[in-house]
From TrEMBL:
Residues 277-289, 298-308 have a biased composition (Acidic residues). This is Uncharacterized protein. Residues 1-48, 273-329 are annotated as: Disordered. It comes from the Eukaryota. Residues 30-39 have a biased composition (Low complexity). Residues 1-18 have a biased composition (Basic and acidic residues).
């Protein structure tokens, strides 16, 4: 029995609005996502909203742009509301979300004759967009380059992350240039595949939530002593969904890989928080600079007014002296 809908295309796009489809978990069709299919079009049986209740498109786009966490819902749900929403969500994905993407090869520890123990881990960060191709690059000292390549190949495939979500899913069209340590892939492939896997996890959680809540309610009779067990159940429900979905995809259990991905998600969350703090600091610096500039302009205006006032005052005294001097002549 499948946990998920089987509407999946070559880039991992999914429509998970339905219930259990009973199809193969890993089935991928060749349908293109560059335009709507008949199943993706909005339901025309609903009457259109009155014009006076419809928000301007610009305001709708600003609202969509304010979303900072539920990226998987924007990709898997909001994107199918209308053509305008589809275009804007994909615009955000291409210009903002993909910049948070990365590939990470777990690597391993080696012993270097000069530096001792060295951990080789291939972390490919977003570099740039070339059209519809996302480019990622890793940095490595020249003396470790060959060792790093061997370590990456030995621990392939890499973990893939977007918007703080981390999964070890295959990415269609991914290519690695080991000489320059560059990975390229379609931007839609990495965004769509990672967010699709996250939607699978949420679908699994929704199906198992009642079972988890039933277990929590049974602990109520234990009072305060059972709070710890209840928290453990919530944590198991949160992290266990990732392991269950991954097991269904791989066809086998991999506890070591599950733990590695769990730690990778924690690290990715910290990186997002750090990036957010840096952007806030930059905004504060910009505001501080603009305020300082405004204060300097204000001080300059005041000083010029004072100089002007003194100048006119001197002229006034001169005129009085001139008037007083004339009669004596």
């Amino acid at each position: 029995m499948s946990f998920f809908s089987d509407h999946t295309d070559e880039y991992g796009d999914e429509d998970l609005h339905g219930t259990d489809s009973g199809g193969d978990d890993d089935s991928d069709s060749d349908a293109s996502v560059s335009s709507f299919s008949s199943s993706e079009l909005p339901d025309e049986s609903f009457e259109p909203m009155p014009e006076h209740l419809t928000l301007p498109l610009e305001l709708q786009q600003r609202i969509l742009g304010q979303e900072t966490s539920q990226f998987q819902l924007m990709w898997g749900t909001y994107r199918f509301v209308s053509r305008a929403w589809k275009e804007h969500v994909e615009f955000l994905a291409k210009t903002e979300w993909v910049t948070t993407g990365a590939f990470e090869y777990p690597g391993y520890m080696i012993r270097h004759p000069k530096d001792g123990k060295v951990f080789l881990c291939g972390f490919f960060e977003f570099l740039r967009l070339d059209g519809d191709t996302a480019v990622f690059q890793a940095e490595c000292a020249r003396e470790y380059h060959k060792n790093l390549v061997v370590a990456c190949k030995a621990t392939a495939p890499p973990d893939v992350q977007v918007c703080g979500f981390v999964h070890d899913v295959p990415i269609a069209g991914m290519e690695v240039e080991w000489k320059t340590l560059i990975i390229t892939c379609p931007w839609r492939a990495i965004v769509g595949r990672v967010l699709a896997e996250e939607l699978r996890v949420e679908a699994y959680r929704a199906r198992t939530n009642r079972r988890m809540m039933t277990k929590v309610k049974r602990l109520r009779s234990g009072g305060m002593d059972k709070i710890g067990e209840a928290l453990d159940l919530f944590a198991a429900h949160l992290h266990g969904a990732y392991a269950a979905v991954r097991k269904a995809r791989l066809g086998r259990a991999d506890k070591r890989g599950d733990e590695r991905l769990k730690q990778a998600r924690v690290a990715a969350s910290w990186r997002l928080l750090a990036a957010g703090d840096e952007s806030e600091e930059e905004e504060e610096e910009e505001d501080s600079d603009s305020n300082s500039s405004a204060e300097r302009e204000s001080d300059s205006d005041e000083s010029s007014d004072e100089e002007s006032g003194v100048y006119h005052l001197n002229l006034h005294h001169q005129s009085e002296d001139s008037d007083a001097y004339t009669p004596t002549q």
